[in-house]
Every structure is written in structure tokens, then in C-alpha cells.
Amino acid sequence: MVKALPFEEPVIQLREKIQELKEITSNADVDLTKEIDHLEGRLKQLEREVYENMSPWDRVQVARHPERPTTLDYINELFDDFLQLHGDRNFGDDEAIVGGIASFQSQPITIIGHQRGKDTKENIRRNFGMPHPEGYRKALRLMKQAEKFGRPIICFIDTKGAYPGKAAEERGQSEAIARNLVEMSGITVPIISVVIGEGGSGGALALGVANHIHMLENSTYSVISPEGAASILWKDASLAKEAAEAMRITAPDLKEMGIIDEIIPEIQGGAHRDLKKQAEYMATTLKRSLEELCTMSKEAIVDQRYEKFRAIGEYKE
Prior knowledge:
It is found in: Cytoplasm. InterPro entries: Acetyl_CoA_COase_a_su, ClpP/crotonase-like_dom_sf, COA_CT_C. By secondary structure, the chain is an alpha/beta fold. It is 50% helix and 15% strand. It is built from 14 helices and eight strands. Strands 1, 2, 3, 4, 5, 6, 7 and 8 form an eight-stranded mixed β-sheet that branches. Strand 2 (97-104) and strand 3 form a beta hairpin. Helix 4 crosses helix 13 and helix 10 (226-234) packs across helix 11. The protein is globular.
């Protein structure tokens, strides 16, 4: 059973009530068909009210859902013949970032993405999806390889942020992120980034300097977590809900501001409800992006990426 989030409780309770009545109808000599039909109509109405009017904090909770699909989940659904590549050729292999070569609808692709775990053991192995410097250097190595062989790059963003520990700083965390930002800006093959969960701070941006940036409907993309922002602004992390609303970190807000290109719709209740269907939605968007970008020259690809980021934050007096 999929774990329910707090804002979903009224929907879950009504579903359970309907299931209870169906069991009574099938096991006892009682006809509750009218009552069940009435409640199922009410359930559809309630689902619309709950899922179509989600607050920014509700979307944060969905983006953090422990069963939300990860990069490897989407790779398995979207791509064929995935060959995972390891290591940064400098220090080691960071399992918080996965990457490799695959084909998307018969087109060779390089895939790179943050990878978090779905249980405690895997989260420890993946460092909760927070990369060390070697993770970003592995990502850059694969991007340069893609550029050499003319393969488009698809990045999946899903991290709370880069790992802030002592060892990461000693090995050059800030330099590694900054290097990715500089190098990605000049790569001559198409880059498409998709925010599939949390897109946190520079740890997310290090895979986000792309020609097209897309977001799943219930993902978030921000310079800091709502809890972190609340701690800084109001000295109280419990005000994270208010911070989430003030920061405008959801896909609709970011689309309105021109930071992202397209919102990928999610299954009602979140991508974790139906991975296969969610992958179909994503495939449609990726195909459209690739068709547009792959017709452009190398110079046009770099220029388009530059102009995209140059336009973010523009204002008129």
C-alpha cells in the first residue's frame, strides 16, 4: 500500500469506507449499492478538491515521498540498453549520482541523474542523494564524453543539495559545482534537465544548466529548503510551510517566472501512484525537446542556452 500524506487523509478515509461497504455487500446478504455509488461520486469530487488545490507545502511533501520514482526507476522505464558508467577518474565513484549511455526511441543518449534510496540501507549507500565532489566530476566526465560523440544529454534532478560535510569540502565541493556550471554553459550538444523530485540549491543547479528545463508537476526547485529558509528568515524551522509559499518553489510558479520550460503533468496523487504512466508523460516531453534541439547547430545550441539563462531575472523599470 502506498503511504498516504497528511493532506490526503480525507481521501484515504473515504476510500477505506467504500472498500468496507463493498466487503459487507459481498459477504453479507445486504445490498449497499446505492450507498457505495453515492460515496464513489463523493470520492471523485473530494479527489478533485484535494489534488487540484494543493498548496506549495503539499507539493513539497509529494516531492519528498519515500516511494517517489528515482532516476534509475525512470531509466528502466524510458530507455533501452542502459550501460552505467562509474568513477570520476580522480578520486572514486559517488553513488549519489548515476550516469551512463542508453538509447531513447532508437536515439543514443547520455543520461545523468541524482539517485537517492528508498530505504535506510540504500539511502546510506547513496548518501541520501547528496553528491560529493566526485559525483559532479563524474557527471562532467560523462557530459564531455557525450559532447565528443555527439550524444544529447538528459539530466534528472532530485537532491536536497550537495553534501556539505568536511570530506566533501576538503575535496573541493564548491569548485566541482562551479566547474560544472561553467562547462555545461559551453557544451555543444543539447542538454535537457528534468526536476523529478527535490531540486535543491547548487547541488541541483550543477545538473541544471540546460537548453530545456522541465519539472514534474509536484516537484520543487529552489536555492534552499523551506526549513532552511524559515530558520534563516524567522529563526524557526517550524515555519517551513509559510516559507514554501513565500519562496515560489513549485512548478507553476517557476513556469510563470520563465525559469523552467514545461510542466510535466503527474498522475493524480503523485508520480509514485503509477510509474509506467508517469514515464509515458515524461517520454512525450523528452521526445518533443529532442526533436526541437537536435535540429540546431552547435553554435545555436550554445547561444540558445546562454540566452535562456541571460533572460532569467530580467526586469523593466
